[in-house]
TrEMBL record:
The lineage of its organism: Bacteria, Bacillati, Actinomycetota, Actinomycetes, Streptosporangiales. The keyword Zinc-finger does not apply. It comes from the Bacteria. SUPFAM superfamilies: S-adenosyl-L-methionine-dependent methyltransferases. It comes from Microbispora triticiradicis. Keywords: Methyltransferase, Transferase. InterPro entries: Methyltransf_25, SAM-dependent_MTases_sf, Thump-like. CDD domains: AdoMet_MTases. This is Class I SAM-dependent methyltransferase. The keyword Transferase applies. GO terms for biological process: methylation. Residues 101-159 form the Methyltransferase domain. One of its GO terms (molecular function) is methyltransferase activity. Pfam families: Methyltransf_25, Thump_like.
Amino acid sequence: MLLAPAGRGALDDAVRILADGADPVAAASALRRSHSPELTAAALTQASLRRRAEAKFGADAAVMYFTPHGLEQATRPEVAAHRAARIGAAGISAAGVGPGVLDVCCGIGGDLLALARAGCAVDALDLDPLTMEIARANVAALGLSSLVTVRTADAAAAGPAGYDLLFADPARRGARGRTFDPMAYSPAWPVVLDLVARARAACLKTAPGIPYEFIPEGAEAEWVSYRGEVKEAAIWTGMGTGGRRATLLPSGATLTASGAEAETGPVSRYLYEPDGAAVRAHLVAEVAALVSGHLVDPRIAYITGDRLVPTPWAACYEVTDVMPFSLKRLRAALRERGVGTVTIKKRGSAVDVERLRKDLRLSGNESVVIVLTRIEDRPFALLCQPVTSQKG
Ligand SMILES: C[S@@+](CC[C@H](N)C(=O)[O-])C[C@H]1O[C@@H](n2cnc3c(N)ncnc32)[C@H](O)[C@@H]1O
């Protein structure tokens, strides 16, 4: 409805009226003067989705189309661009031609737009006709129609032979909300694996918490974080290095398993909190080697060391106090130091952070970072000051 000329006019009007600061009721009555009730409702919904999408898609949001689920599930452009650049640079296509990619769950197009911008020729499909129409409109709006075809189809019936790479980003949201079980993805994991088995190369986007046993033998699993937050795991077959990888965006710093083994030892002057991508990829020993540190406990992803080594792979804190955890003792220590503001971090601790915050009854002008952890199976609290933060 919004793609017809009358719809585009209504959407332009809705965007302008909302940008002028009108509240939704005033905007609706202004739009109703020149547009039908259906067009008014659709235009207002789309205009507010565009506003919401700016945080993810930046300036492109102003010309794109969205559904609420499509926007939520779309890959962040920086992450999609990283993946597309890897595919573009992998040398998996004939010389001088960009790779041919089959995107079997294209959604509103977050990944396919980045793939086309990286020079890939993309055939895309989605089971949902409305979502597919929106992807097609986004391709046109961003001037990429010469590189992309989009159609409605079920991934299960797709033929990945003839493409350089299969890309799949299955829906992780079912009728009952978000799912963490790959068997409940749509399409389900066995369908995706069957496509992978028939593809020359493949990239599967999954949730960061994908159980290791779901990663196909010989594949590379890459955990990607953006500004310190782990966004996804991408599983690569037919390209990539195999094994585990962690990548930080926007910097693009990347780390692979080196076989390093981390020693365990006492808490030293500095505490390093590794990026979640390195933790998920089981690369904490590699991060420890980068900062010449050791682990506080063999099962906990905190690194400690005597040297301050700035690294994008970990936030660093200077440790001022180490004490066995007890509410009374912690409260007394904070009172003595005049601490009124705390940031509480925990790994390997069952303490309820919000309850603890209340129970501490803080007052004062100072601030500290409290790290709750377990050392040799005993709960400990570390008081720290931030030295460097880690922003990817
Ligand atoms: C996570 S979204 C994809 C997001 C997309 N990569 C992006 O960045 O915008 C998953 C999409 O898969 C589609 N889907 C679910 N089951 C499917 C199937 N069997 N065949 C094709 N598409 C399917 C859903 O309609 C949804 O749009």
